[in-house]
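Summarise this fold before class:
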Amino acid sequence: MKEVNKAMDELRKLERRGNELLKGHKYTLLNSNLTPKIKEERGLLLECYPPLAEGYRLKQLFTEFWELKDKQEAEGCLAFWCDIAEESKRQLFMKGARTIRAHWTGIINYIESRINNGILEGLNSKIQRAKKRARGYANTKNFINMIYFIFGKLKFDYPLYLT
């Protein structure tokens, strides 16, 4: 999804050059839950700029993919989207289609399991923060011990006063 939104925003930027009407409408084309007034503005923009309309159609088609529950249906939908993106001759969406084809099995497996790697990314972020905070470790053993210390959620209640 990130790749498709990025392609849509880049397309908007390309169309924006020399067109004051598109100024300030980044989120009009990227967000789906908008007020009726902004939806009307979006409709006008898509009418005035056919390349944006084509890009927006591709974006919406891709959004529908994530709602599918059946693996075979999802594969067909994704293959159809990649074909349409490549036929559009828009380099930004063609790049997105290539990325999707490169990560095909992982994307399709998400439909079955609904598991993503968000938790792993969060853990990695904490590890990288610890490494940065220490400005490096003298050896690997100390670094591994720090990882255990962070994720072990150890509590050390030291006495306030020495007796």
